Amino acid sequence: MATRLREGPFREVPTDGKKSLFVSHQIADHSESMKLLADNGLRPVTYWEALVHAPELVSELKGKWFWLADQGTTKSGIYTFNAKGELAEPNGTETLDEKVHIFRGNRPLRLSISSDDYSDWRFALGGRTVSGAIAPVVVGIKDVTKSLEDGRAALERLRRGLSK
Predict the structure, then answer these.
(1) Maximal CA-CA distance, the chain
(2) Phi then psi dihedrals of residue 99, to 5 deg
(3) d(CA 11, CA 144)
(4) Region 58-74: what's the mean pLDDT?
(5) What is the spatial distance between Cα 13 and Cα 67, in angstroms, rounded to a whole number?
(6) Confidence band (pLDDT; 50, 70, 90) for 148?
(7) At a CB cut-off of 8 Å and minimum separation 6, what does 164 contact?
(8) Which H or E element spans position 29?
(9) Bridge partners for 108 per DSSP
(10) Which domains does the chain have, with CATH numbers?
(11) Residues 95-127 pLDDT 10s
(12) What is the dihedral of CA 63, 66, 69, 73, to 10 degrees?
Protein backbone atom coordinates (compact mmCIF):
# COMPACT_ATOMS: atom_id res chain seq x y z
CA MET A 1 0.00 0.00 0.00
CA ALA A 2 1.49 3.37 -0.98
CA THR A 3 1.58 5.96 1.76
CA ARG A 4 2.36 9.60 1.07
CA LEU A 5 3.72 11.37 4.10
CA ARG A 6 4.52 15.05 4.54
CA GLU A 7 7.93 15.40 2.88
CA GLY A 8 8.11 12.68 0.31
CA PRO A 9 6.94 9.41 -1.05
CA PHE A 10 7.31 6.66 1.52
CA ARG A 11 5.90 3.26 0.78
CA GLU A 12 4.83 0.94 3.55
CA VAL A 13 6.60 -2.41 3.42
CA PRO A 14 4.26 -5.31 4.16
CA THR A 15 5.34 -6.92 7.43
CA ASP A 16 3.89 -9.32 9.98
CA GLY A 17 1.63 -6.51 11.18
CA LYS A 18 3.43 -5.65 14.42
CA LYS A 19 5.41 -2.64 13.21
CA SER A 20 5.31 -0.99 9.83
CA LEU A 21 8.48 -0.21 7.94
CA PHE A 22 8.48 2.63 5.44
CA VAL A 23 10.85 2.94 2.49
CA SER A 24 11.57 5.94 0.31
CA HIS A 25 13.73 5.43 -2.77
CA GLN A 26 15.51 8.75 -2.28
CA ILE A 27 19.26 9.11 -2.05
CA ALA A 28 20.39 10.81 1.15
CA ASP A 29 23.38 11.14 3.39
CA HIS A 30 23.04 10.41 7.10
CA SER A 31 21.78 13.82 8.21
CA GLU A 32 19.36 14.12 5.28
CA SER A 33 18.00 10.64 6.03
CA MET A 34 17.42 11.48 9.69
CA LYS A 35 15.72 14.78 8.81
CA LEU A 36 13.48 13.17 6.20
CA LEU A 37 12.42 10.51 8.69
CA ALA A 38 11.71 13.03 11.48
CA ASP A 39 9.78 15.33 9.14
CA ASN A 40 7.52 12.41 8.27
CA GLY A 41 6.82 11.19 11.81
CA LEU A 42 9.20 8.29 11.41
CA ARG A 43 12.39 7.32 13.17
CA PRO A 44 15.40 5.35 11.99
CA VAL A 45 15.28 1.59 12.37
CA THR A 46 17.57 -0.05 14.92
CA TYR A 47 19.68 -2.93 13.68
CA TRP A 48 17.64 -5.45 15.67
CA GLU A 49 14.36 -4.08 14.24
CA ALA A 50 15.86 -4.40 10.76
CA LEU A 51 17.00 -7.98 11.39
CA VAL A 52 13.54 -8.92 12.72
CA HIS A 53 12.23 -7.86 9.30
CA ALA A 54 15.05 -9.56 7.39
CA PRO A 55 12.79 -11.44 4.92
CA GLU A 56 10.88 -8.29 3.99
CA LEU A 57 14.09 -6.30 3.60
CA VAL A 58 15.62 -8.95 1.35
CA SER A 59 12.60 -8.96 -0.95
CA GLU A 60 12.33 -5.14 -0.99
CA LEU A 61 15.92 -3.91 -0.82
CA LYS A 62 18.28 -6.61 -2.09
CA GLY A 63 21.44 -4.86 -3.29
CA LYS A 64 20.76 -1.63 -1.37
CA TRP A 65 21.82 -0.11 1.94
CA PHE A 66 20.43 2.46 4.38
CA TRP A 67 21.25 4.33 7.58
CA LEU A 68 20.21 2.92 10.94
CA ALA A 69 19.65 4.40 14.37
CA ASP A 70 22.68 4.49 16.67
CA GLN A 71 26.31 4.97 16.04
CA GLY A 72 29.22 2.57 15.98
CA THR A 73 29.76 -0.99 17.06
CA THR A 74 32.56 -2.82 18.82
CA LYS A 75 31.57 -6.19 17.36
CA SER A 76 33.32 -7.62 14.34
CA GLY A 77 32.90 -10.82 12.35
CA ILE A 78 30.08 -13.03 11.14
CA TYR A 79 27.05 -13.50 13.37
CA THR A 80 23.58 -14.93 13.16
CA PHE A 81 20.43 -13.46 14.72
CA ASN A 82 17.27 -14.74 16.36
CA ALA A 83 13.59 -13.80 15.87
CA LYS A 84 14.10 -10.74 18.12
CA GLY A 85 17.04 -9.49 16.03
CA GLU A 86 19.53 -10.33 18.78
CA LEU A 87 23.00 -11.30 17.60
CA ALA A 88 24.54 -14.69 18.38
CA GLU A 89 27.54 -16.76 17.36
CA PRO A 90 26.74 -18.94 14.33
CA ASN A 91 26.61 -22.71 14.84
CA GLY A 92 27.22 -23.60 11.20
CA THR A 93 23.66 -24.51 10.21
CA GLU A 94 22.51 -20.98 9.29
CA THR A 95 21.40 -20.07 5.80
CA LEU A 96 22.81 -17.12 3.89
CA ASP A 97 19.78 -15.02 4.93
CA GLU A 98 20.42 -15.71 8.62
CA LYS A 99 23.96 -14.29 8.66
CA VAL A 100 25.21 -10.76 9.19
CA HIS A 101 28.80 -9.59 8.75
CA ILE A 102 29.59 -6.86 11.27
CA PHE A 103 32.28 -4.26 10.66
CA ARG A 104 33.61 -2.49 13.76
CA GLY A 105 33.60 1.31 13.71
CA ASN A 106 32.43 4.43 15.51
CA ARG A 107 30.49 6.17 12.73
CA PRO A 108 26.72 6.05 12.12
CA LEU A 109 25.47 2.51 11.53
CA ARG A 110 24.33 1.28 8.15
CA LEU A 111 22.81 -1.97 6.95
CA SER A 112 23.55 -3.43 3.53
CA ILE A 113 21.53 -6.22 1.97
CA SER A 114 23.73 -8.22 -0.38
CA SER A 115 22.40 -9.23 -3.76
CA ASP A 116 25.23 -11.74 -4.11
CA ASP A 117 23.96 -15.22 -3.33
CA TYR A 118 27.55 -16.53 -3.40
CA SER A 119 28.85 -14.64 -0.37
CA ASP A 120 28.92 -16.05 3.16
CA TRP A 121 26.28 -13.62 4.50
CA ARG A 122 23.25 -11.62 3.34
CA PHE A 123 23.53 -8.60 5.66
CA ALA A 124 26.41 -6.28 6.46
CA LEU A 125 26.18 -4.04 9.52
CA GLY A 126 28.85 -1.43 9.79
CA GLY A 127 29.94 1.58 11.73
CA ARG A 128 32.81 2.69 9.52
CA THR A 129 31.13 4.30 6.51
CA VAL A 130 32.96 7.37 5.22
CA SER A 131 31.52 10.82 6.00
CA GLY A 132 29.10 12.08 3.38
CA ALA A 133 28.23 8.62 2.02
CA ILE A 134 24.93 8.60 0.18
CA ALA A 135 22.43 5.80 0.82
CA PRO A 136 20.17 4.82 -2.08
CA VAL A 137 17.10 4.45 0.17
CA VAL A 138 15.72 5.82 3.44
CA VAL A 139 14.07 3.32 5.78
CA GLY A 140 12.09 4.24 8.87
CA ILE A 141 9.57 2.98 11.33
CA LYS A 142 6.53 4.68 12.82
CA ASP A 143 7.48 6.67 15.88
CA VAL A 144 4.88 5.22 18.25
CA THR A 145 5.68 7.75 20.98
CA LYS A 146 5.01 10.67 18.63
CA SER A 147 1.78 9.05 17.40
CA LEU A 148 0.58 8.59 21.00
CA GLU A 149 1.44 12.21 21.86
CA ASP A 150 -0.41 13.46 18.77
CA GLY A 151 -3.42 11.30 19.70
CA ARG A 152 -3.45 12.59 23.29
CA ALA A 153 -3.22 16.19 22.08
CA ALA A 154 -6.13 15.64 19.66
CA LEU A 155 -8.20 14.01 22.42
CA GLU A 156 -7.47 16.92 24.77
CA ARG A 157 -8.53 19.44 22.08
CA LEU A 158 -11.74 17.47 21.58
CA ARG A 159 -12.44 17.39 25.32
CA ARG A 160 -11.90 21.16 25.63
CA GLY A 161 -14.23 21.74 22.68
CA LEU A 162 -16.96 19.58 24.22
CA SER A 163 -16.73 21.16 27.68
CA LYS A 164 -17.59 24.67 26.47
Answers:
(1) 68
(2) -120, 145
(3) 18
(4) 94
(5) 17
(6) low
(7) none
(8) none
(9) 71
(10) 2-162 (3.10.100.10)
(11) 999 999 999 999 999 999 999 877 889 999 999
(12) 60
